[in-house]
Amino acid sequence: MSKLKGKVAIVTGASKGIGAAIAKALAAEGAAVVVNYASSKAGADAVVAEIAKAGGKAVAVGGSVAEAATGQALVDAAIKHYGKLDILVNNAGVYEFAPLENITEEHYHKQFNTNVLGLLLTTQAAAKHLGEGASVINIGSLVSRIVPPATAVYTATKGAVDAITGVLSKELGPRKIRVNALNPGMVETEGTHAVGAIGGDFEQYALASTPLGRIGQPNDIASVAVFLASDDSYWLSGERLYAGGGAR
């Protein structure tokens, strides 16, 4: 029996990488999915097409989560197309690395607006429609624990995600809504290739500190997201689950 049959999910930043894998994994378990994208409509449409080909339901909705109107549009799409909302995956995120001397206001606001403000705005819009048994999954990062050099701003955003997860678990808990953080280690995606993290010194650093001996793949994270979205995790809230192959 599908773990998420009859459920409706929103996944932000789901046109590629981890978000796309999560959207497809939720759909494979029976959820109807609103696939959000900021810039890659083609990527989001491809995710929707793949879900439909497998017999699932999905719709793509564009917009930056850093704008309140996008969060509302995502929720409106879920209600319009599927009549309710059960799962929110706050996956949309950006990252840029810079040592202290190179940090700028633009560098700071770009990451905080998407990674932190975007999460808050989308959850604010979704919470009005989430009911008992609903699950909010915030995609954080292992960086909040291992604090690599030259990541002060990005790591700060993910530390904020951890803190917000705890706060919202207490705010939404009385309504029987669970809020958890899923914190991946290094994962091979279009993004990590684009910034040169794959195939370089950073990958070797990550491999050396990962006991399971490989870089993560998007499906490694998606399977944990399914667990957090399903009733299998009904007694977990306010938790941080690290999915990094044992990296510390």
TrEMBL record:
Annotated InterPro entries: KR_dom, NAD(P)-bd_dom_sf, Sc_DH/Rdtase_CS, SDR_fam
SUPFAM superfamilies, A to Z: NAD(P)-binding Rossmann-fold domains
EC number(s) stated in the UniProt entry for this protein: 1.1.1.47
GO terms assigned for molecular function: glucose 1-dehydrogenase [NAD(P)+] activity
Family under the similarity heading: Belongs to the short-chain dehydrogenases/reductases (SDR) family.
Domain Ketoreductase: 7-190
Protein name from the UniProt record: Glucose 1-dehydrogenase
A Pfam family per the record: adh_short_C2
Species: Dyella mobilis
SMART domains: PKS_KR (SM00822)
Alphabetized UniProt keyword annotations: Oxidoreductase
Top-rank EC class of the record's enzyme: oxidoreductase
